[in-house]
Description:
By secondary structure, chain A is α/β, with parallel strands linked by helices. Chain A has helices spanning 17-28, 42-48, 70-81, 93-105, 209-219, 227-231, 262-268, 297-307; strands at residues 2-6, 31-38, 54-61, 86-90, 110-114, 116-117, 122-127, 132-138, 143-147, 162-165, 175-182, 195-199, 222-225, 252-256, 273-278, 291-294.
Amino acid sequence: MTILVIAEHDNASLKPETHKVVAAATAIGGDIEILVAGHNCQDVAVNAATLSGVSKVLVADNQSYADQLAENIGLLVADLGKSYSHILTAASTTGKNFLPRAAALLDVNQISDVIRVESSDTFVRPFYAGNAIATVKSQDTIKVLTIRTSAFDGVTQEGSAAVVAIDNAHDAGVSSFVSGEMTESERPELGSARVIVSGGRGMQNGENFAMLEELADKLGAGVGASRAAVDAGFVPNDMQVGQTGKIVAPELYIAVGISGAIQHLAGMKDSKVIVAINKDPEAPIFQVADYGLEADLFDVIPALNEQL
Amino acid sequence: MKILVPIKRVVDYNVKVRVKSDNTDVDLSNLKMSINPFCEIAVEEAVRLKEAGVASEVVVVSVGDKACQEQIRTALALGADRGIQVDTDQKPLPLSIAKLLHKVVEQEDPSIVLLGKQTIDGDNNQTGQMLAALAGMGQGTFASELKIDGDKALVTREVDGGLVTVALSLPAVVTTDLRLNEPRYASLPNIMKAKRKPITVTTPEELGVTIESTVEVLKVESPASRSAGVMVDSVEQLIEKLKTEAKVI
């Protein structure tokens, strides 16, 4: 049994999501190999080789993989994947984009957003916005899984796997990268932040998010948002936490001016400690909060910033 | 240009589902069912492309039992031209749905297939990608903007960390994110008009696809419940609790 983990990276550095996917692969048990597909991505491969439990790192370095286009990576993964028992990647927007494509080319089903490994063929995943948890058994010859990284602790970096270059170029020729517009932020990424401060419609406008950013900086926290705050244009959409945004499980989640709709709870209710600050005592967020403060956020946040 | 929009009938997004007491599935009896919100955005985008003179025909297709005709009618009331129901009592996995849709794509030969990025029941986020793979088409997933430029589709995609724009050769598959558009409401005259629009019914057998399930659901459980904690009275008390009780700051 050999497991293929596809690394998440930006050609320059390995994303911490990969550490967690390797942890899921370790729970399945077997030989673990990592595929780094990209362009000028040697540093990523060297870093991936240090992940504990990994026996080999395959590097497909080609211009056609530079932008992680699903059409090209999908062909590569489908081609290589035939000789593996399991193919895993993070349930990030990159993984969600190319892995189902590879699964269809391999003619097998995919199991999305795995939160627990029961055995080599049995996995646990949430559905219905996290309101139900299914234990499923796959009869497919190759198990194709995306991993919910917030549900696993990353492996350490004490390994020394061999790095092997592979000559395997695929270009489907149907898509090309035009441009990218990335949000610049000095704060920790939501997926790996220990503390997250999130704002909702109650913030009233984008300028008021500066208060939350100040609080986040004091706590070393990432800043998230509800869909309402994103739709209203207060903050960019990659900050959205929820069923259709990012799924997070930090040690501390502070929800400010967020009512707590089903779709938002789906993205944060596995946080260890939840704090809700809201002036509406009926807000559903109070039903999941460990500590609730019924008060106006415009009084509370400045006070918190002052006292922390 | 023809646009094909696959849609799904799902439990309404406002409903909090409960797990059946025998742990076999969720209990959907007597719950309000609706068109999946992401599919609604796909229908809206297709109709807007028609209104802009880019598309000439919008065809909606749904895989499911007869009840899904209700959601096809909703899409017709929103402005789609005709519907196709692939009739089955089974609940196919995304790969089987993609295979069925692939056959419909071969018959209809659309320039764009517009799907939702995920359904809010299965939360799989797979079908569009799988269909694109089977049809050998390019894919623009999680689209927040779609522009047609000659024989290419320019798709701005919502990705972790920001936005990415890709150019796809047509025909192509596009899956919608929430911010692509704001779906309209169907007016009463349009609902009445939709009743006269045609829905053709086909079957997996007619399409030559066998629905296979290689994933067996062993059990379905409720998530570990989180009980309400305590209300604090002041900022001082909140900081105190987080420091000494929860020990998280």
